[in-house]
Amino acid sequence: MNTPLDIPGRARRLDCRLAVIASCFLSVVAPHGASAVGARRAGNLISVTLDGKPEVVIPPTAFNCQGHERAVPDTPDVQVNMFHDAGGRIHVFAHNHLNFAFIEMASGRIVHPDCTPMLDSRLDPDPRAFADREWLTSPYTVDGKLVYSLIHDEYWGSLHQRPGCKPLDRAHGIQSCFYVAMTLARSLDGGNHFESLYNGGQSFVATVPYRFAPAMTRAGYGNPSNIIRDRRDGNFYVFFEAFDYLAQHAGTCLMRSADLLHWRYWNGTSFDGVFVNPYAASADASQHVCAVVMSQLLSSVVHHRVADLFVGVIPRPRYMGGGVALTSSSDLLNWSAPVLTMPDPPGGLVSYPSLIEPDLNEAGRNFENIDDHPYLYYVLLTGRQRTVMRVRLKLGTSPRSGL
């Protein structure tokens, strides 16, 4: 996440030039080793092109709420995720750790219904609580009434003046003592208000098997994608970022759950990986680190029904040239080489990309399905201004050849 000081944190910022678009070919890589989700004969994502001009979805003026942290502006700081509740109202996640809700009006405008946070960040100075700055990131609901959401939690030792932590370098956006975890929240009113799910006093889901230490630059698990359900096995899947620290290698890992409450990670051969709360148990750390399935961050994953293919969205960091890339997979483990889909516009940075299907019947309650013409949603950064944008894509696919 990025802070009010414009310090890069949660997701990677991107550079892009919208004037140029690459037509691309995404060939699915042949699976290696055991497949976690099961092999299938899927179609291929053949080409991706822009199908229109970028348009504003949520202007900066719509971010007009004031939170309890007076120095923190209301601003978009997560990838856009949506779901519609039992009453048919569309909820839009496009907030920072102040967690102000958005809904889509009948006119298509997306607005704050009020300035009551869906969840208050607790700003707890104790890293054992996993409750410092908390971003609701990944909602999912089966019935539109009970909604679960993963929380991306960032513990900033420097802001809590922990001994051994260096002060924040505001000029260069350098953080130290940065500890990331994922926790879980629940809403009983269709997504209007969330509460942390406490299990033994905590809502812990995942982090690295190491306790916070001042020597950390960045450590932990966070930046979860949307939650997607695989129709074949009924399980729920989430991609998340692992930071490089001791036995844990940097990259994107994958976890799954049968009930949205209990999660296990892919350990390289199976989903038997058990997350360990380093403050609640002692364990061999090397046995509790996730296997990286992709070196780059996957911020959004959807299912293309016609091709029976998963399509992932990659926010490319600036050192890789920036922009947004797409990749495809038939099993959620083996992904095609990322291909640049949208470069950065002059003077702007693109961040927090996700794919959203506009046809509600096609998209499903949690917007986890797409057809050949989804929207690419993203946050455009120009200086200190952030605008939620979207652009229509045209996907070329070959149909599945049978299961």
Largest sheet: 11 strands, mixed
Helix content: under 10%
Kindly report the average pLDDT value: 86
Classification by helices and strands = mainly beta
Order of helices and strands, N to C? EEEEEEEEEEEEEEEEEEEEEEHEEE
Walkthrough of the structure:
By secondary structure, the chain is mainly beta. Helices cover 1% and strands 33% of the residues. Strands 7, 8, 9, 10, 11, 12, 13, 14, 15, 16 and 17 form an 11-stranded mixed β-sheet that branches. Strands 1, 2, 22, 24 and 25 form a 5-stranded antiparallel β-sheet that branches. Strands 21-20-19-18-23 form a 5-stranded mixed β-sheet, with no helix packed on it. The N terminus is likely disordered.
Task: Write a concise synopsis of the structure shown.
This protein has 403 residues and is an all-beta fold. It has one helix at 360-363, and strands at 45-50, 55-58, 81-84, 90-93, 102-104, 110-111, 133-141, 147-156, 178-187, 195-196, 204-206, 218-222, 228-229, 236-242, 251-257, 264-265, 273-274, 300-304, 309-315, 324-329, 339-342, 349-356, 369-370, 375-382, 385-397. The strands form 4 sheets. Strands 7, 8, 9, 10, 11, 12, 13, 14, 15, 16 and 17 form an 11-stranded mixed beta sheet that branches.
